Amino acid sequence: MQILEARGVSRYFGGIKALEDVTFRIPRGTITSIIGPNGAGKTTLFNCLIGITKPSKGAVFFCGKDITTMQPHEICRLGIARTFQNIRLFKSMFVLENVVVAQHTRAEYSVMHSIFSTKKFLDTEKSITEKSLEIIEFAGLHEHAHSPSQSLSYGSQKRLEIARALATEPELLLLDEPTAGMNPSETEDIMGLIKKIQSLGITIILIEHDMKLVMNASDFIVVLDHGVKISEGRPDEVCKDPQVIEAYLGKEVVY
Amino acid sequence: MNALFAAFRTNPMLKGAFTGFWTGILILPFAGPRTSFMVFLVVLFCVAVLAVYKKKSFSSSRCSIFSEKYRYLLSIISSDLRIKAFLYIITASAVLFPLMLTSYYLDIFIMAGIYMLLALGLNVIVGLTGQLHLGFAGSYAIGAYTYALLNTYFGLSFWLCLPVSALSASFAGILLSMPAIRLRGDYLAIVTLGFGEITRIVLNNWDSVTRGPNGISGIAAPSVAGISLSGLRRYYYLVMALVVLAVFITKRVEQSRTGRAWMAIREDEIAASSMGINTTKYKIYAFVFGSLWAGVAGQLFAAKMQFVSPESFTFIESVFILCMVILGGLGNTYGVLIGAFIIAILPEALRGIESYRMLIVGLGLVVMMIFRPQGIIGNMKKCRY
Ligand SMILES: Nc1ncnc2c1ncn2[C@@H]1O[C@H](COP(=O)(O)OP(=O)(O)O)[C@@H](O)[C@H]1O
Ligand SMILES: [Mg+2]
Fold first, then answer.
1. Neighbours of A6 (CB within 10 A)
2. Residue B273 · residue B279 · CB < 8 Å
3. pLDDT digit string (tens) for A128-162?
4. Residues of chain A contacting residue B257, judged by C-beta atoms under 8 Å apart
């Protein structure tokens, strides 16, 4: 049973073919890694999946539903959340506020409820605040819940991004280089967090450069190079694939 | 140069001198030069002493137990309560003021109240949502003319017209947001500026309806249960009541999911949309909600003057309102009230030196940008949770 399917997704920026005819399926409950050299089109693929950029060709299906032309907020509502390669937190907000904002779609009351401070408003606010605190604790940030988000260390900011994405209650979580710039022990911690998220039944797609992490954690791997999917499969299959070896080693020869 | 700024921030005497000077200027019109000078000296002294004390109490370990206790006490009455106490004092003095003031000052205070409404509205668009709006006087004008026309042509009452003015300004806000949601930065600035100018030019040239540059006169003042509110004192209370209502509603909306969505859009639009916020919808909401208060302010202005003409709604008016928001601190509801008050009062305060008025206002803003870019109140925001 697959949760996400990309069918022939292509994205062109003028003459640049950032993605060319990429097709894959993601089974529910798995961790899939997308790997490939810099500029291979991994981030662009994420942007196409959640509607920030539209594919030039092809289609994306989520739970069998065509989401190709949907807006990012609609896709989020359906249950896909993401983190960003370059941290994109709400900088002037507190840690807790960042997470509370992400519960926007899960806390529905009209403006009138807030103006008259009705019971529904108060109850909803209370429950989303409690929920947010839980998520922050889950992400290991409980000490920082009331600090400004900018005061966090780089690693904690990355965690906060994950916490914020979780707060939208996703079924599918896209993580764009969650361990980039981290030391081995921080990477280990993030790995633990990702496993914990998987155990909640959330499907994960991971863009990652740390090969050890990729090989250990993922159920499937998709390899992109110059916008083209050159290989896919289980970790042991992929690392034996001559095309993958060429893409990674060939890079050295070219430069 | 940088060293100079640093000195201003850290050197207690310089800091005191600056704050004292600023307060002295503000108090000049009410108290005259002698008292202002006294105030200057007192503030200088107090600020300098406080600054020295602060430095000491942070560095010395000797009084740590005392300061722990002190800080704990402070934290109890901090944030909310402190702001609340402050608000009560302000409200109380706002209620008592008119009993002591001459009609000259009452007049200025009424205008200050109207500007507070405008600043509150613009703050939602510029401060909370981060959409630059350079034509807010357009919405203000629409509110004023809606009441002027409905009242003089059809004789509709103030209270009946109030929601209509508010809604027509909001509706103009929707129209403006159509192009605005697609634009950012300087393009947005140009389009909103165009909106303000187009509104004024239409009012100026649509002679058959608006009587063009001659304006509309004979607009009725409001009344309650047969009692006219045209007297300055009564009108002052009406304006203040509406300001309080506006602050109350704005604050409530700001602290709900709507306000959070606005701030998320201001911080990072792409991240906001990925978190499920319909950025288009909430930008339109911001324009609608902000313009609503401009509509109310416009009607209050028309009813106060009993006369409107396009001259009152020029580009410079928009800039003034923007200055209030910036001075008070973008996105800080209480701050912009103070900003509005100061900017509305300042031109009157500096009337004696008429020709330098704008220069001083400008200089004040520049100084502000250098020393307190976050606005007068600035970082008072505390985590609410
Ligand atoms: N908005 C854009 N405009 C033009 N080119 C882009 C844009 N976004 C990405 N690209 C190009 O697409 C290619 C893939 O980029 P990206 O998806 O960021 O790669 P990766 O994340 O795999 O490092 C790069 O050549 C990049 O320059
Ligand atoms: Mg990338």
1. 23
2. yes
3. 999 999 999 999 998 998 888 888 999 999 999 99
4. 104, 107-109, 114
Please tell me the predicted confidence (pLDDT) of residue A83.
95
Pick the residue from chain B with its C-alpha nearest to A122.
Answer: B256
B235 Cα distance to chain centroid:
19
The model's pTM: 0.83
Per-residue pLDDT tens digits for B30-56: 666 766 676 666 666 556 555 554 444
Q: Does domain B101-371 have CATH number 1.10.3470?
A: yes
The region, left, alpha or beta by phi > 0 then psi within -120 to 50, assigned to residue A180 is beta
Q: What angle do CA B369, B373, B377 make, to 5 degrees?
A: 120
Residue-range definition of the domain harbouring residue A145: 92-154
B298: left (phi over 0), alpha (psi -120 to 50) or beta: alpha
Helix B158-180 × helix B185-205 angle, to 10°:
140
Q: How many Cβ contacts (< 8 angstroms) between chains A and B?
A: 99
Say which residue the tokens 């203040």 belong to: B240
Indicate if A69 and A102 belong to the same structural domain.
Answer: no
Return the biggest CA–CA distance within chain B.
Answer: 79
Mutate to test the pocket of ligand 1, among A11, A16, A177 (most ligand atoms within 8 A of CB): A16
Q: How far is CA B168 from CA B144, B192, B201, in A?
A: 10, 17, 18
Same domain, A245 and A174: yes
Q: What residues does A19 pair with on adjacent strands? A: A11
Residue A164 maps to a domain: no
ipTM of the complex: 0.91
| A118 and A244 together in one domain | no
Interatomic CA distance for residues A13 and B252, integer angstroms: 44
For B70-81, what is the mean pLDDT? 50
Residue B40 C-beta-side C-alpha neighbours within 13 Å: 16
> Could you tell me the CATH number of the domain that includes residue A204?
3.40.50.300
- Whether A200 maps to a domain, the answer reads yes
- List of residues 6+ apart from B154 with CB closer than 8 A: none
Report d(CA A116, CA A130) in Å as an integer: 22
Domain count, chain A: 2
At residue B382, the pLDDT reads 45
Residues from chain B contacting residue A108 (CB–CB below 8 Å): 257
> A223 has which bridge partners?
A35, A231
- Half-sphere exposure for B30 (CA within 13 Å, toward CB): 17
